[in-house]
């Protein structure tokens, strides 16, 4: 570290906030995805805790959010500290490569080509805050050397819900400031149970939580080489956004010159003409491709991806079973409740996950290991063991035309 | 039969409409008991079908209802054909002996001491209407001879939810118009499963559905002998009610004499001063005792009770399992729905009983043989096999102070 720097001065965090969280239906919906919920009952939503965690590392001004246009209002309401220029609104979902690339391209134009960017999902839960900071610190150091650096989560069970990272040789000699860095041998898709167990027994596999830290220029150079159409579209939109930046700054100057208070008379969100035009022109044709496929996997084959082990408690709360694992029991029978305990009455029932979100009393008699999710307009009942299949239930509802419930 | 008589001219039907139906919570409540519900989804509530069934036998003017004061408005709304003088409102529950005796005592005063009365619960389901009429016909003939006559239901399974009637010798020789009449050997309480099975294998036991037909005078004489305090209190209230009758009739005469239309200016329900005073004085101290204990069992020991076999389909819909047995399946997986089918979506779920009464979508994934009852303010989930224990759930809620849900 040099001077007053904490080692993160050139680091910017991007929070792609997308994905409905279909397996958490009927709590999470297309119109209100899971990152907007306080799934741990701790008073802060998932995107709020994600923002808090990253702002603690690099400061509020170094955190931005990419999300769908329909969620911008909710994000701004939940994150009043986030200024307008740090929200990138997507007219339609174009998957994570476009989301991360657009934020990266704009940040480069604003802060220079040498910055480091990191992408962290809006809906993950991390408990070991200091261990997380240390992992990100080593990831930033490793990224400086040129690696796209992921944080590999300690696999605590043979999960079939996550992709895995196969660890390669140590990079400690090459990067003294990141003693835990290794190469990534390869990324592997969600395995079946037998394969997952085999991975675990080698001790060489970690979960891929989709966290990536890299030099902005490394990412954009790779995209220009491998996905040139996507990269050019992103550049055009980023250029338009900084054109809006300049128009805004000019308006601020003018207001000041006229003796006005620009905070009152000039609003950042009103300067979006260039961006809107560029979005309309380029966004719809952008390839929908996940960051893993477009960047991490191909670069790992070339030895361009590194990994820092993340041994903090982590979960992506994919389904109600995950929610249950993170909630404290409300009684000695291992029942878990999200919402008001006053709304729940259990008799001879154990191991249930109850979401009391409908304002009514939920009475369970002799119900074991079930998920009961009550909301104002929809109720779900399912065994905990079938939590992953809630996605199929939502598909079933979609097929029967219940669009208003999705 | 003589002249235009159908054999029921001197017969009056009493419908005691009491009992919350606790095992049908949260559908049925203290404030809206099960007899007010259309549990079969056929467009008529239980008390409506009971009324229809009895009115078809003895005419609308020969049917009366005894119910709690808080349910009078709902009963009148559901049975607009029922005139005000045919509703006996109870200030507080005093069990079936008082309910039947009061209606009987008033009917005797209005229609003479020789009438036959029959009591039929408001919340039973009977499918074989002609077989029911024939059973009641024979019961009336048997009652004329002086027997308190019950209708014994063919026991189709070794139920532990009903009391049983042990059949005695035939009375056919004594009562030619009631060829199926037998004496009742004795009444037995709800048995355990082994005993119930033993009863069934003898072929001599039938279910006690609490239907009793008897000469009004036989009932009142018995009560005056065995329960004199209760009988005197009932007589005093019945006297007061006929005093109100006379005050009403006098007012009608006066209105007519003054050229008014008494249907517009005189209302039966306004004439209740005598009744109210007598109720206030006598009702609270009346012994709470079931008709079976006060009348049927002691008289059966003296050989005073007869039985007509009832081989019509019958159920008392005590719990959600009973509801399920009477509802058609909505799919090939034996799911049963009470309420709007549009509100129910099942996936890989079988044998469920779903009550859609909350106006929201109920989604069941991998849920088998469960009861799910959704209402505006309370939701119940329980295995079908534990339907009888819903009563315990309600007790649990009562103990936790959720009085507004009972």
From TrEMBL, chains A, B:
Keywords: Nucleotidyltransferase, Transferase. Pfam families: ManC_GMP_beta-helix, NTP_transferase. Residues 346-397 form the MannoseP isomerase/GMP-like beta-helix domain. It comes from Bifidobacterium choerinum. One of its GO terms (molecular function) is mannose-1-phosphate guanylyltransferase (GTP) activity. This is Mannose-1-phosphate guanylyltransferase. Residues 13-324 form the Nucleotidyl transferase domain. Its EC number is 2.7.7.13. GO terms for biological process: GDP-mannose biosynthetic process.
């Amino acid at each position: 570290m040099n001077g007053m720097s904490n080692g993160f001065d050139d680091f910017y965090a991007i929070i792609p906030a997308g994905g409905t969280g279909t397996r958490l239906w009927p709590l999470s919906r297309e119109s209100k995805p899971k990152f907007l919920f306080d799934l741990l009952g701790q008073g802060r939503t998932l995107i709020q805790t994600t923002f808090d965690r990253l702002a603690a590392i690099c400061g509020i001004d170094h955190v931005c959010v990419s999300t769908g246009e329909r969620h911008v209002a909710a994000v701004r309401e939940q994150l009043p500290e986030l200024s307008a220029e740090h929200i990138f609104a997507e007219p339609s979902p174009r998957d994570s490569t476009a989301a991360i690339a657009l934020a990266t391209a704009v940040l480069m134009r604003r802060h220079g080509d040498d910055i480091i960017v990191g992408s962290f999902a809006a809906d993950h839960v991390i408990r070991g805050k200091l261990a997380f900071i240390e992992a990100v610190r080593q990831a930033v150091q490793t990224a400086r050397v040129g690696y796209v650096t992921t944080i590999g989560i300690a696999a605590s069970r043979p999960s079939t819900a996550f992709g895995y990272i196969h660890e390669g040789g140590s990079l400690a000699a090459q990067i003294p400031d990141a003693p835990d860095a290794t190469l990534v041998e390869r990324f592997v898709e969600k395995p079946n149970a037998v394969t997952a167990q085999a991975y675990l027994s080698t001790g060489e596999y970690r979960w891929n939580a989709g966290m990536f830290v890299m030099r902005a220029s490394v990412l954009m150079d790779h995209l220009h080489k491998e996905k040139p159409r996507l990269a050019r579209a992103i550049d055009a939109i980023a250029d338009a956004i900084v054109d809006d930046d300049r128009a805004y700054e000019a308006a601020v100057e003018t207001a000041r010159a006229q003796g006005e208070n620009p905070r009152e008379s000039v609003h950042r969100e009103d300067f979006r003409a260039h961006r809107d035009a560029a979005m309309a022109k380029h966004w719809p044709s952008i390839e929908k491709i996940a960051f893993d496929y477009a960047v991490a996997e191909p670069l790992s084959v070339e030895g361009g991806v590194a990994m820092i082990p993340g041994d903090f408690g982590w979960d992506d709360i994919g389904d109600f079973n995950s929610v249950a694992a993170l909630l404290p029991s409300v009684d000695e029978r291992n029942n878990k409740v999200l919402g008001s305990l006053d709304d729940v009455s259990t008799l001879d029932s154990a191991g249930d996950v109850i979401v009391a979100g409908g304002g009514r009393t939920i009475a369970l008699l002799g119900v074991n290991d079930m998920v009961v999710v009550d909301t104002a307009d929809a109720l779900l009942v399912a065994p905990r063991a079938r939590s992953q299949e809630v996605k199929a239930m939502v598909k079933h509802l979609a097929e029967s035309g219940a669009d208003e419930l999705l």
